[in-house]
Automatic annotation (TrEMBL):
Keyword Oxidoreductase: yes
Upper classification of the organism: Bacteria, Pseudomonadati, Bacteroidota, Flavobacteriia, Flavobacteriales
Protein name: Aldehyde dehydrogenase
Domain annotation Aldehyde dehydrogenase: ranges: 20-475
Record keyword NAD present: yes
Organism: Psychroserpens luteus
CDD domains recorded: ALDH_F8_HMSADH
Pfam families membership: Aldedh
InterPro entries cross-referenced by the UniProt entry: Ald_DH/histidinol_DH, Ald_DH_C, Ald_DH_CS_CYS, Ald_DH_CS_GLU, Ald_DH_N, Aldehyde_DH_dom
Key words, A-Z: NAD, Oxidoreductase
Length: 479
């Protein structure tokens, strides 16, 4: 199936007629092609967005909200079709896409469709100066949204929905590795009555199509989720043009387990926080630190549970771990397993590719647990972004806090304890944008989302996203 650029409400071939292959990770086969878009395609998308802006930015909140909620309803009505498409493109189990990715994409539109009707700005009476100040929150204009391959539609819509709700027009690019659900979204936007040109989706490589978006002098804001190195590059390109930037980047998140936690709950959640989506979630707890007194018990119980996970074809109902997203990514993850061995880490389980009958060329890997000797080894410091976690014991709070914070990243942290004072001490000091206590990935879309250090700049989620996608203007009236 060939995917086409979605520009001005229509589907277009790329101007240069160059195409890229799209692979199905579950069997390693090419199953379609996507545009290898150039600067000219991005320019057309920009022109379309720019023409739509005056009218969209003046569309009433009621009308914007109605359209966004309609998109949400259509996504829900097409759940099975979207979940199958996401799975085929990404390798994730269909069951996961059905339970998480697509419902969450629908929630993004519903949430921001509602949130914009509640988004208010401030006014300040300047007492004694006979003046009143009020703040306008005006849409920026044309904004760029660039998203990664791990949660394709989920993260794509996490950006697009607030951008549109705030009255902007969008030029968006999904990862070239997982373009399919973005393509289907275009059809749904037309059906929901989104005016032509309000959303434009171009497909292609990061270094060319993505680069054309970030370099475009009149695309005034970029919301990007992806790797830290790409984020740094985007920041450099955008800085001289003073673009507004929101960067949600990589993570190497600690999962800190104290002996006083609810053990069974912790164990079940830790299996999920380690290996959900084949470990390809920026929030996965990839560094597990366990209090010394329960370390040996945890090690045995955890490894037994991980060994019981079924690696299988994404469409099979009992599959826990599907395929990794691409061949190069599989190779990268395998390299890290070798690095762990070279660093004297002990592979407690997993570490090998899995061959699935009839799908021998798919990118399957066993979930892998590595016991490390030092928190400073490479597999404990660098983002692997696959089904690989490290474990090691700790003796006290200070030590684990130091180890948890001693990485360049600061996206999320998970803490398992029933001690309230420790919870308060630790969550204050953990260097992370999000701290989960006795849970993982419990999301409320009103909360600020983002990271510190090399995990990003800025916050999205709730009104934070609406603030990002608007410019504040103060008006001061003397009376
Ligand atoms: P990349 O940084 O490689 O790519 C992300 C997106 O940016 C893709 O659409 C990519 O296009 C595009 N891109 C690449 N180069 C450029 C460029 N020069 N200009 C503009 N766009 C560009 O990340 P991955 O897709 O590999 O995603 C995995 C990463 O994302 C991990 O590091 C993960 O931690 C992070 N992530 C962070 C999250 C967060 O919320 N903090 C959430 C999820 C993931 P293409 O793929 O087509 O080359």
């Amino acid at each position: 199936m060939n995917i086409k650029n979605y520009i001005n409400g229509n589907f277009h071939n790329p101007i240069q007629d160059n195409w890229l292959d799209n692979y199905n990770p579950s069997n390693g086969k090419i199953y379609g092609q996507i545009p290898d878009s150039t600067k000219e395609d991005v320019e057309n998308a920009y022109i379309s967005a720019k023409s739509a802006f005056p009218s969209w930015s003046q569309t009433t909140l009621d009308e914007r909200s109605r359209i966004l909620i309609k998109i949400s309803e259509l996504l829900e009505a097409n759940l099975q079709r979207f979940a199958e498409a996401e799975s085929k493109d990404n390798g994730k189990p269909v069951s996961l896409a059905k339970q998480i990715d697509i419902p969450r994409a629908a929630s993004n539109f519903r949430f921001f469709g509602n949130a914009i009707t509640q988004f208010a700005s401030e006014s300040h009476e300047s007492i004694g100066q006979q003046a009143i100040n009020y703040t306008l929150r005006q849409p920026i204009g044309v904004v760029g949204c660039i998203s990664p391959w791990n949660l394709p539609l989920y993260l794509f819509t996490w950006k697009i929905a607030p951008a549109l709700a705030a009255g902007n027009c969008v030029v968006a690019k999904p990862s070239e590795v997982t373009p399919m659900t973005a393509y289907l979204l275009g059809e749904i936007c037309n059906e929901a009555g989104l005016p032509k040109g309000v959303l434009n989706i171009v497909y292609g490589l990061g270094g060319s199509t993505g680069q054309a978006i970030i370099e475009h002098p009149d695309i005034k804001a970029i919301s990007f989720t992806g790797g830290t190195a790409t984020g740094a590059h985007i920041a450099k390109v955008a800085a001289p043009m003073f673009k507004k930037l929101s960067l949600e980047l990589g993570g190497k998140n600690p999962n800190i387990i104290f002996a006083d936690c609810d053990y069974d709950d912790m164990l079940a959640t830790t299996v999920r926080s380690s290996f959900a989506n084949q470990g390809q979630i920026c929030l996965c707890g990839s560094r597990i630190f366990v209090e010394h007194s329960i370390y040996e018990k945890f090690k045995t119980d955890f490894v037994n549970k991980v060994k019981a996970l079924k690696v299988g074809h994404p469409s099979e109902k009992d599959t826990n771990i599907g395929a990794l997203v691409s061949k190069p990514h599989l190779e990268k993850v395998k390299e890290y397993i070798q690095i762990a061995k070279d660093e004297n880490g002990t592979v407690l389980c997993g570490g090998n590719e899995v061959t699935i009958t009839d799908y021998e060329n798919g990118y399957y890997l066993e979930p892998t647990v590595i016991e490390v000797q030092s928190d400073e080894c490479r597999v404990n410091q660098e983002e692997i972004f696959g089904p690989v976690v490290t474990i090691m014991p700790f003796t006290n709070e200070d030590q684990v806090l130091q180890m948890a914070n001693k990485v360049k990243y600061g996206l999320s942290a998970t803490l398992w304890t029933n001690d309230l004072k420790r919870t308060m001490r630790m969550s204050n000091q953990l260097q992370a944008g999000i701290v989960w206590v006795n849970t993982w990935m419990l999301r409320d879309l009103r909360t600020p989302f983002g990271g510190v250090k090399a995990s990003g700049v800025g916050r999205e989620g709730g009104f934070e996203a609406l603030r990002f996608f608007t410019e504040a203007k103060n008006v001061c009236i003397k009376y």
